[in-house]
Amino acid sequence: MPGPGPAEPGASYAAVGGRTPWWHAPPLVPATEDKGLGLLTAQRFIGRAIAAGCLVAGAIVGAAGAVGAAPVPALPSSVDRAGPTAEAQAPAHTDAGALAAQFGLAQVGRPYAYGGTGPYAYDCSGLALSAWRTAGVYLPRTAEEQYYSGPHVPLSQLRPGDLVFWATDPADPATIYHVGISLGGDRTVQATVPGAGVEVVSLWWAEGLVPLATRPA
Predict the structure, then answer these.
(1) What is the value of pTM for the model shown?
(2) In terms of CB atoms within 10 Å, which end of the chain has fewer, N or C?
(3) CATH topology assigned to domain 91-214
(4) Using an 8 Å Cβ cutoff, are 162 and 97 in contact?
(5) 207 versus 43: which is more confidently predicted?
């Protein structure tokens, strides 16, 4: 293809793509090569059209996939990410007490073991501690300490989960030696004595019943 300079004899020149004359632009292509140029231009046009068609098809497929896909959930707000409030996390006492009572009942038949806190054996305060822990309330270890783990209620107002106590002197909490879990009414679940294990017994199973129960909180 000729560079800038006089035209070849008998050849006319056409600008490629409507460009300016050859003396102001890159070299022109002789009219005798128009057919080859047209073929090359057509090939390029077809190639670009195919590429554009692929992009459009890809967009259509992507859109179809987006329609069929499950929607992406929105990010939770800062409040949601922080989790539920303390009020939402803390169950009402009746729910917590019921959970504690249910846990105690599920342990019926397990052996008594001094100092036992489960899961295979319990003593009286170990059963109470483990039962209330399932409800999200953490009690101190001994029966005497557990007496002070919440407000006191009279025995006539017992609810499931309330803790009932026995003492050598029922009027003196310092002499408390045993604790059980109320099931409501006059029934309790407790780890009574070695050889008996965890069982359901009457509120009046032994002497020394303390007149006030504790509702853990």
Answers:
(1) 0.58
(2) N
(3) endopeptidase fold (from Nostoc punctiforme) (3.90.1720)
(4) yes
(5) 207
